[in-house]
Backbone:
């Protein structure tokens, strides 16, 4: 990451051409540079003004809306300006080339605007991650989860925990340092352990919701498994309503995992078509079956598809959540093996039978797995790991009744440090670089 003292610029809007393109500039020279580009006096702070933009030789470039956000009341916490241009490739390219010609002004790196907001105390790390998730949100539930994090609602939960720990540590320090003073009652620290126990209970409750947050953010994975020609590829195509997988009568057509996505009631669902499970000596198919078994074992849900006309014994599935789904129901009842009671659902990909019911059942299952009272839940592994570590230190302090009070106080300090790392108040440069590299340039 280049020096944070530089003035930076970037195209912050979407792909070109577009109706409007937004170029953002942030840093100590931002307002001065905008004055050099535009005719007339700049508009008041946070008020859009229509101005003509000029090239270095004074010739007309474009007519644009310009806004000025003096620091610290800006997104980055420093002087920041926005230029709303016509979104043609020629206009934007010429403007970016013009900006690159100013001394001390350079193109922003990925995530650098957001990193400056973090460095200047405008956002904490949880809010930054929520903002990143908001920019990448595909579904309504992903949007809602990201809003909870980016707006600081989850950070306020963490901060409340940290303040309780600070108070507990203060009480212990008072007993350790001033026990001989008349106005410091003895064993004052005994009064705070019930509060610490309650805090631990709150943390454990939030940790239980981590999987829900993970599913909402990353999606719910559903593997389609079964023997060759059980109808996996046909069902995948029917659910997503387009030809994603090749469908033939030849057993073993699907050799690799095929992925498609569904939006079910605002939840992202990942569908995976896998190779047919059977014994084979064909090298490529065996590798496909190996990959299929790995994905099946890791999926949130497995749909075990069974051809209702197939007399072959179904293969066992290695997953704790498996639904048996009978396929090809349109012509199955000529077969004596077809019995609706053996299956979660009966479907026909060609006729569309049972597909609406399958979508409804999948949506209900995702909602059941993500049922939480609030979306202020950890959605990233990093967040969960910090809470797990903090909870472990609290548990050590609570259970260590035979330990010296100084050691129990140290456990509380370490727990507080974990919560501080969670919001990014103290952290490593490597972690910060990883998080901000996930942003696009211009944000």
Residues:
């Amino acid at each position: 990451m280049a020096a944070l003292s530089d003035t930076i610029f970037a195209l912050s809007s979407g792909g070109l051409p577009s109706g409007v393109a937004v170029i953002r500039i942030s840093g100590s020279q931002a307002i001065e540079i905008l004055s050099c580009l535009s005719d007339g006096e700049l508009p008041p702070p946070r008020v859009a003004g229509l101005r003509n933009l000029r090239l270095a030789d004074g010739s007309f470039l474009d007519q644009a809306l310009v806004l000025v956000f003096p620091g610290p009341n800006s997104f980055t916490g420093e002087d920041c300006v926005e230029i709303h241009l016509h979104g043609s490739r020629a206009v934007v390219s010429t403007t970016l080339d013009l900006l690159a010609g100013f001394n001390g002004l350079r193109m922003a790196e990925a995530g650098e605007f957001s990193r400056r907001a973090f460095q200047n105390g405008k956002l904490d790390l949880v809010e930054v991650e929520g903002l990143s998730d908001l920019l990448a949100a595909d579904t309504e539930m992903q949007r809602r989860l990201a809003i909870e994090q980016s707006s600081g609602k989850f950070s306020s939960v963490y901060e409340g925990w940290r303040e309780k720990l600070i108070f507990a540590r203060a009480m212990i320090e008072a007993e350790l340092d001033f026990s001989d003073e008349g106005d410091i009652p003895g064993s004052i620290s005994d009064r705070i352990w019930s509060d610490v126990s309650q805090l631990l209970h709150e943390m454990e409750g939030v940790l239980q919701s981590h999987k829900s947050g993970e599913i909402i953010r990353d999606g719910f994975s559903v593997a389609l498994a079964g023997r060759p020609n059980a109808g996996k590829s046909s069902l995948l195509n029917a659910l997503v309503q387009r030809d994603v997988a090749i469908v033939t009568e030849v057993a073993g057509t699907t050799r690799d995992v095929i992925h498609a996505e569904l939006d079910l009631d605002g939840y992202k669902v990942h569908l995976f078509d896998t190779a047919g499970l059977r014994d084979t000596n064909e090298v490529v198919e065996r590798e496909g079956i190996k990959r299929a078994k790995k994905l099946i074992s890791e999926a949130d849900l497995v749909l075990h598809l069974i051809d209702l006309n197939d007399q072959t014994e179904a293969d066992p599935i290695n997953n704790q959540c498996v639904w048996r789904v009978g396929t090809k129901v349109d012509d199955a009842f000529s077969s004596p093996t077809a019995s609706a009671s053996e299956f979660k659902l009966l479907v026909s990909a060609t006729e569309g039978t049972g597909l609406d019911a399958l979508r409804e059942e999948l949506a209900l299952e995702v909602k059941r797995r993500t049922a939480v009272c609030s979306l202020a839940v950890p959605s990233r592994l990093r967040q969960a790991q910090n809470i797990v570590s903090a909870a472990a230190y609290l548990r050590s302090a609570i259970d260590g009744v035979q330990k010296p009070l100084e050691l129990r106080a140290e456990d509380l300090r370490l727990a507080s440090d974990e919560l501080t790392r969670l919001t990014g108040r103290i952290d490593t440069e490597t972690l910060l670089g990883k998080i901000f590299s996930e942003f696009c340039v211009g944000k």
